[in-house]
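[recover] target loaded
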């Protein structure tokens, strides 16, 4: 979400104890269908939905970077042939930790349909796909003030990894949240959720550069990401 537009996650009013999915009284998904991204014809609906909640629109190249490289990690919620929910993710090797890391870049749900568990189901669907692809972990960022998103992600199993100061263009801080598919190597030896560094010359400075670059990609700045990695 995940940038993350996980900032658009629906605000929960109650939690279904059996599933952990935020729900509103009487709300269902009976008329909403979750589908995998198919082709370029799905792109306009995703862009239109996500840009409703952005103060500064993403470039079309940002959407294409994620969706064209990882089409199997993009899903839509459809209602009467209209896109009312979308999630866009990626999955690649996190060099500094040698882990296969998923990243939720964008998550949005139509304002009129929030509270029906659509956002939660999109996230869970994406995580399950990442699991089948061999992911070790998944991360995202969301504003520290976005209690609705924080409750949503906590109910799914995400935990706070770090606070990123002035992460967003509006000057707000973000929390980086992490979901672990398995405990990393070294966890039992007290190395925590990060696990041991990958080594082979990858130092802490490079680790920080990769963190900045990943955040830049999530916020839609390909140029900033390339500069951070150079």
């Amino acid at each position: 979400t995940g940038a993350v537009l996980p900032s658009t996650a629906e605000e929960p009013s109650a939690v279904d104890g059996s599933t952990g999915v935020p729900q509103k009284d009487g709300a269902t998904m009976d008329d909403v269908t979750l589908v995998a991204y198919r082709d370029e014809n799905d792109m306009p609906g995703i862009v239109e939905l996500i840009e409703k909640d952005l103060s500064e629109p993403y470039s079309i190249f940002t959407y294409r970077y994620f969706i064209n490289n990882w089409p199997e990690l993009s899903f839509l919620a459809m209602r009467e042939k209209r896109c009312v929910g979308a999630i866009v993710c990626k999955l690649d090797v996190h060099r500094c930790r040698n882990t296969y890391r998923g990243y939720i870049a964008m998550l949005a749900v139509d304002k009129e349909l929030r509270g029906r568990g659509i956002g939660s189901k999109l996230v869970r669907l994406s995580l399950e796909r990442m699991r089948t692809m061999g992911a070790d972990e998944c991360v995202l960022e969301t504003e520290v003030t976005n209690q609705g998103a924080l409750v949503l992600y906590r109910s799914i199993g995400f935990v706070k990894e770090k606070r990123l100061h002035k992460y967003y263009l509006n000057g707000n801080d973000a929390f980086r949240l992490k979901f672990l598919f398995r405990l990393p190597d070294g966890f039992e030896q007290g190395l925590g959720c990060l696990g041991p560094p990958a080594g082979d010359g990858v130092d802490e400075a490079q680790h920080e550069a990769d963190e900045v670059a990943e955040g830049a990609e999530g916020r839609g700045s390909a140029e900033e990401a390339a500069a951070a990695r150079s």
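[recover] notes: The radius of gyration is 17 Å.
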